[in-house]
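User: Just a sanity check before I run the rest of the batch. Below are the structure tokens for the first item. I only need the designed sequence back.
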């Protein structure tokens, strides 16, 4: 069993060098050992790895077939990375034994979190006994994550529960939409550049078009019910246009 991610040997199966090179470098900075191949045949011939990151769009064979062959001979955790976003592709991949499915574009931070989650699930460590000390530690940790509730006009942001209300109505935000709003709300009125928002929400190693930011801003404006709350600062970025009141 692996004891930490620095010991993890990850097989990256990706034919696009524009993605593979920065991804290899980024994961390396997190302590993973990356072995990169760019074809399905090379993936099947590679030495055993602790985890496989598998692109579905390979030049010599479909990634679904690579997954099928890997799963037939190994229980290695497999995370599919792909531009395909159809439900049928996800279902087939997961039914063939993939442990997770991450559509492009994605951020390095999200990928690392997915890797850690898959490793936790597949390693299934024993559940520790609950002691008075562990209960105290849990209480301390819970207290540490308590956050203030921030009121921005009619918009109420609860970072602890990741909930947003407009007036009395709960607004359903996607995870990245909430992260984007929370970041803008850290300093309402201040202008955040597009790069600051991408780095802060999707992190420094974002793989995908910057248009993703515009899509999320548009969705936020629509869901908050007042497009003027998020102002576009031409050629720079965006800012919130309301003042704040913070309470415990």
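Assistant: Here's the designed sequence for the first item:
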């Amino acid at each position: 069993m692996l004891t930490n991610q620095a010991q993890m040997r990850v097989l990256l199966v990706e034919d696009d060098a524009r993605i593979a090179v920065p991804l290899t470098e980024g994961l390396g900075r997190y302590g993973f050992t990356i072995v990169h191949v760019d074809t399905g045949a090379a993936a099947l011939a590679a030495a055993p790895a602790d985890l496989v990151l598998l692109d579905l769009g390979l030049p010599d064979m479909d990634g679904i077939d690579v997954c099928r062959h890997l799963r037939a001979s190994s229980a290695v955790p497999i995370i599919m990375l792909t531009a395909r976003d159809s439900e049928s592709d996800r279902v087939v991949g997961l039914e063939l034994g993939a442990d997770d499915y991450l559509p492009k574009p994605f951020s390095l931070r999200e990928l690392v979190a997915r890797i850690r989650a898959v490793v936790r699930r597949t390693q299934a460590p024993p559940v520790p006994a609950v002691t008075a000390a562990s209960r105290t530690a849990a209480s301390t940790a819970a207290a540490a994550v308590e956050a203030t509730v921030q009121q921005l006009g009619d918009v109420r942001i609860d970072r602890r529960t990741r909930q947003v209300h407009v007036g009395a109505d709960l607004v359903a935000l996607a995870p990245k939409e909430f992260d984007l709003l929370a970041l803008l709300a850290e300093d309402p009125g201040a202008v955040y550049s597009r790069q600051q928002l991408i780095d802060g929400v999707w992190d420094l190693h974002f793989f995908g078009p910057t248009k993703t930011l515009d899509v999320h801003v548009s969705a936020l404006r629509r869901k908050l019910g007042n497009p003027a709350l998020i102002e576009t600062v031409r050629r720079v970025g965006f800012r919130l246009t309301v003042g704040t009141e913070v309470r415990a």
